[in-house]
Design brief:
241 residues; mainly alpha; two-stranded antiparallel ribbon; 8 helices; 6 strands; 8% strand
Length: 241
């Protein structure tokens, strides 16, 4: 049963206009926060192991212990205090992403965590489970900022062609990402990113580029990122057999 029976609903009407896949992370200054087990917000504590820090950051994705509902959660603004739970959740997601594949096991353990979080994509409910999915998905795809996103775009077969990545089903979804990762357990995150970008490039090519500028918006940024990742992979130390 998909998402343990929880319906994933699109929050906005897909118009085909460009939109980002997620809200940009806020620049919050130098203070970091984690939650203790009583839910109080405290400064990062000395002596935490890496695993404990990752677990604490995942706890910070929850803005309450209530089950997430279908009422929209307003996004924090730049003037929102750093102690606001929504700001803490966004900052925690940025820090978790910095751990890369190391954080994946802990994130996967929370794929049925339905505590209220903030929106990391345009679906509801915005729970910790979806936040964990988005953190892993965005690490695997590693999209360049100049890649123009939208739910639909015009293609060679006509208008309103569904876009890869932005609409499910895609390379994997919430229910299949774990199996996808397991099948690539011996690969580095960079190798996984190369596979994901190759898939995305092929899907964009299937839609086609009927308008001037389409390649610049929908293909060229992906190709540049792919070339950079291949160069990074080629220069990385080889794993022993």
């Amino acid at each position: 049963m998909a998402r343990a029976g929880i319906l994933r609903a699109c929050v906005v009407v897909a118009t085909g206009l460009a939109c980002s896949a997620e809200e940009p992370p806020l620049e919050l200054g130098e203070r970091d926060y984690v939650s203790d087990r009583s839910g109080q917000v405290t400064a990062v504590r000395a002596g935490m192991s890496q695993a404990e820090t990752i677990d604490a950051l995942i706890d910070d994705l929850a803005i309450s212990n209530q089950r997430a509902g279908y009422s929209p959660i307003s996004a924090p603004q730049r003037a929102t205090p750093e102690t606001d739970r929504r700001v803490i959740a966004r900052r925690a997601a940025t820090q978790l992403a910095a751990y890369g594949k190391t954080a994946f096991p802990a994130l996967r353990r929370h794929m049925s965590d339905h505590r209220q979080s903030v929106a990391f994509r345009r679906v509801m409910p915005n729970d910790v489970s979806d936040a964990c999915f988005c953190i892993m998905r965005n690490q695997i795809f590693n999209l360049p900022k100049d890649y123009v996103g939208s739910f639909y775009r015009d293609g060679v077969d006509g208008p309103m062609q569904s876009r890869p990545f932005f609409l499910e089903p895609t390379l994997f979804d919430h229910d299949t990402i774990g199996a996808w990762i397991d099948a690539r357990a011996n690969r580095s995150l960079t190798e996984m990113q190369i596979e994901a970008l190759n898939w995305l490039i092929d899907e964009e090519k299937k839609i086609g580029f009927p308008e001037p500028g389409d390649r610049e918006d929908f293909l060229d940024p992906l190709v540049r990122r792919l070339e950079a990742l291949k160069a990074e992979s080629a220069s990385a130390p080889k794993k022993p057999d």
